[in-house]
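Rotation project, supervised by the postdoc (A.L.). Task for the rotation student: set up a whole-complex structure prediction and record inputs and outputs verbatim in this book. Inputs entered:
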Amino acid sequence: MDHRAPALDIAIPGLAFGGRQVLGELRLRLPAGHCTALLGPSGVGKSTLLRLVAGLLPLPEGAWIAAEDGAPLTGRVAWMAQQDLLLPWLRLRQNVLLGARLRGERTDVARADALIASVGLSGRETAWPSELSGGMRQRAALARTLMEQRPVVLMDEPFSAVDAPTRHRLQDLAARLLAGRTVLLVTHDPLEAMRLAHHVVMLRGAPATAEEIRVPAAPPPRDASDPAVMAAAAALLESLAAAA
Amino acid sequence: MRSGALSRGLVVAAGLVLLWQAFVWITAAPPFLLPSPGRVALALWDRGDIILGHAAVTLSEILVGLGLGALAGVLAALLLAAFAQARRWLLPVLLVSQAVPVFAIAPLLTLWLGFGMASKVAMAAIIIFFPVASAFLDGLRRTDPGWLELARSMGASRAAILFRLRVPAALPALASGLRVATAVAPIGAVVGEWVGASAGLGFLMLHANARSQADVMFAALAVLAAIALALWFAMDALLRAAIPWSRETFPDEETQP
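Outputs recorded:
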């Protein structure tokens, strides 16, 4: 990593959309180099919060999102969505290089190919996205996200559109490749949260507020067959069901 | 695959010619009203050099008109997509321009631009402009919001988002516009020739009509149809080659990946 991943402090006094209060008063700290999972019932405002941090939505009055090192966040955040968002007119390698292409920077083909290899897609560099399976496309999206070399990575249910075994492998891959970055992971999957995250935060209520959930002592990525992980995931599922 | 389509097309054409011949036999229509296919073929053979000379004029009018009209349509769509001010001021003008029938201004164009090629090129270009501009603008507006958010999160400038995201994403829509434009382009050229010209298939047909040479009219019509078909297939092949990533299926061909 070129940049040290900073901790992020998020403070939002509340956010309303079209007269409806979406988020309540919210304070959230994303510790440096750690993965923080954000869970909550559908429509509670998880994606909204992620978009605020990504700079895709304007910050409401009185809200602030600051990196601990004091430097602005612009250009230090990468965003990965639920859909792979691969551009159908670009081959895999050019899709991975998309950020540099869009900014008109020099493209580092060697690094792109190395990342493509690290997500297990070597040999497919010149494939069209339509020739790849759903799991391969999501791995390509992961490589594109890592290509950005951003110390902060925001992921919005990145693996929810793929089948369970593929998701399991993708989680291992993501945990390995994202180690050391400050990650905010929005997910619906309690097991995913308990496997990948150092910290688990649940949003609930209307307007939503944040609540920290205890995680197993072992450092992530945790083994899915670890009884402590399974128990924590089951407990989280129960409280999610109760909150919905 | 292509040869199969071609042979099917030939079979359909042969069937239509047979029907035509049968109709002529049954009704005994006089040749100056409805010539038989044989008479038309004979006219095509006898007057071939004259017809081809006129066809070359019409074809060049269509091609230049297609080029200019498509270029203007693409530029207008880009301008409208990029600037809100352009949309506010130009969109109404665009719609009004389409509300005036092109046929109605054909005499004016001939008056202003003369009896030569310029007025026919202008006619064809005006007819082509609108389908290209509206289809491309539609495509430019319908970029996947997810792609736009991804590009913004990557720090892309507005120009980069327009030219590297919206434009490529809109190419299939532009291709639809160009296909329609190619199909209607001959209309513009021929109408222009009817209003006032000294050459071209439209001029030849009008001339033959005045002398009751129905066989020459039909021969010219056949050549015009052949030009229109060839143009359409050439445009279709060109667009498919230019947008190889575009996935097109009909409802009865859907497959699950």
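Student's summary: The interface with chain B takes residues 51, 54-56, 74-75, 77-79, 81, 83, 85, 87-89, 98-99, 101-104, 128, 130, 133, 148 of chain A (CB under 8 Å).
Supervisor addendum: Residues 6 and 87 of chain A are 31 Å apart (CA to CA).
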